[in-house]
Fold this protein.
Amino acid sequence: MPQHEPSTLLSTVEIIHWLALAFMALVYTIRLFWLFSFRGTKDRQPPGNLKQSTPMKGAIYSLGNVAMPWAMESTRRGWLFYLSFVIFHLGVVAGISLAFLSSLDRSLLEIPAVSTVMMVMLGAAFAVGVGRIIRRIVTPYLRLISSPDDYFSVILLTVWFLVGVFAQAYIAGKLDNEMFLVVYLLNTSFFLVYVPFSKISHYLYYPFARFWIGRTLGHRGSFPYSRG
Amino acid sequence: MSVQVKSHKVKVMEELLAKKLTRQVVASLVGCVHCGMCHESCHYVLTNPDDPTYTPSYKADQLRKIFKANHDWTGRVFPWWVKASTPMTDDDLEALKDIAFGKCTNCRRCTFNCPMGVDTATLNRITRGLLSAVGVMPEGVRVVSKDQWEIGNQMGVLKEDYLDTLEWMSEELEDELGHDRAAIPVDKKGAKVVYAINPREVKYDPRTIKNAALIFYAAGEDWTMTTEGWDQTNFGLFSGDDQLGGICGKRVYEKVAEIGAERLVISECGHGFRSTRCEAPNWAGVDVGFIMESSVITMLRYVKEGRIKVDKTRNSRRVTFHDSCNNARSCGFYEEPRELLRLVATDFQEMYPNRAENYCCTGGGGAMSMSEYTPRRLKSAKLKADQIAATGAEVVVTSCHNCVDGLNDLIKHYGLKCEVKQLVDLVAEALVLEEPVVEEKPAPIEVVEPAARPAEKAAALAGRRILVVDDEEDVRTFLTAVLEDAGATILPAKDGDEALAVAMREKPDIITLDLSMPGKDGVEAFVEFRKSPETENIPICIVTGHPEFRKVIYDRPVPPPEGYMDKPVQEEKLVDNLRRILELKDRKG
């Protein structure tokens, strides 16, 4: 049950969005070539306790660490922060899905249940984003380590979540102004172009960082690690 | 407007950074999102909650900034946007030194708590390496590194002193066992096992060598020590100097290959084990063809295989175990020491947190050699002191020499009632020797401190004239009483000037010297003793309440003291140490 027909403006913005995506993919490809242009290292040391771990075990454990809040003391003790991390990143998934589905298969987003879930996810991520901005501003050690990019990135995403809520509402027929979706897609386009140059690109490097450290420490037997 | 020009050192550092960048390092440099999850994993942060500069990511950012300014496109185009910058002056490098060496022990606890897999400790080590390469490092690190480069071991132990100590320990074993079959073999070609140690054992704690020798003997091991390449420690790990790290490793590997041994056993030393076994093959670019294991594994194997028998009731005091950061987090060495400890002690109490989550002893990362940061170190040690106190243990066991020193310092500083031991000590104490060890005597051997035997105690220092230098009358009286009981004649002095005068006049056999005294203090007096032809050969045993002065003493451009004891001294240990020093001197003639 389509609620709105896309205007010429919206169609143009959608094209910009796809171009931005292509740009991001290109820059990311270059970034990966750049990362791999540095020499790799070999673990020459003999394996540690093979009964305890192997490089592959260590790497898998390391990669899965993000989904094991009980594994690290920092996530175990800071479970609230971990929860906020989950909500924030689910919001990112919802926001990206919204951007693509709004062009590819808007009817899916028009299903009331889907629409509600999307708005809740984006709304919750927005709330977490606001909390993160405040946390970064008021916490002395975070202020010390934060760069303008750190502030801008979290503000950019938080605004993006909020606009996403309105864009989704527009798609669901609850709002009547197409500009919500236009602004959202423009926001997404900027986001896609900006991301490779900002700290938001951490997700590109994260799997490599985790894999490599997990492989080395797995080789030595210290990943997966025991605690008490 | 003046344009600031980069100092030569900064330029060299930047060039060197490019050579140190690997994929793994770059991933850690670009992967940080400044989420702050590492913050509370650091013992410095937890004990300095009002100082945000201890935050691990802030420390790693010191390198990250330089990297971004030189290698990252956003940092090069919009440096202010991502806080990319580079030091400009030598003063900036001094400030960087203070962070990299003085605010982090590279314990890797933050690394294990980073959701992004950022290896902050490795980044800090790289910063250290860049600074060391341009000569910006704490004096202690410089001195120790120099000794390791030039003399071949980090404490500058001379070959003859090392061999003398091995001989001395062999003689001790002979005295105790009644035969010479447990003597320490040196450079024995074809031996199956080469045992490498920490020079600290030669200098401060030779009994660990004796205990290890006793265990090897009891296990019937075909083993040897070596005249070269015996130092398994590696200051390259602390200074970030991979070249030194590789050289140190190679010295050991080459010697093991020369002997033709199957196995290198590394005495209990966390950083030594990590360096020799895990890091140095990478630094040196060599593949090692023999087994490398910690002596803890060796001892555990001996017990499990029935090669040695132990009686755990001989260690009945409550013990706890402190995990060395290098052994645990960096080498996956979690369960074996506990397994062994349970076999040789009756009352083992875990401290919490432990294993991969244990807190640093605060002496790691070379911190014990950087006396300028001692107040910081001891402040951060509160966490560890609380951990230990909560166990109610009388003995803290650890498999690391740095930890031994770090823990001893904090135990003294926080007035804990416990002592630090290594597993080799506990295993030796629990060791049941099945043979009649003293052939003429049917009674089973008991390894007893010689000073504990009354008759020997009285004779231990008979005829010796000892100059006791201490400004506190109570201490002088105590030392006098203890040493007179052991048969010595005491010449007291209350400060450095008086001590020098008495020494010139009386030519004592040995001097016990306090360091912190009004007027001419012990450090000045020590240097004058060493420089004066009339007193230069008198052995000196430092007896001080300031263990952090050790570096000050050992950095003097004169021969080091023959002994170094921390107050409060135990009577038996004092007598025993002085006796040994004098015996060594007698042997040297």
Remarks:
- The longest strand of chain B covers residues 318-322.
- Residues 436-454 of chain B have pLDDT under 50 and may be disordered.
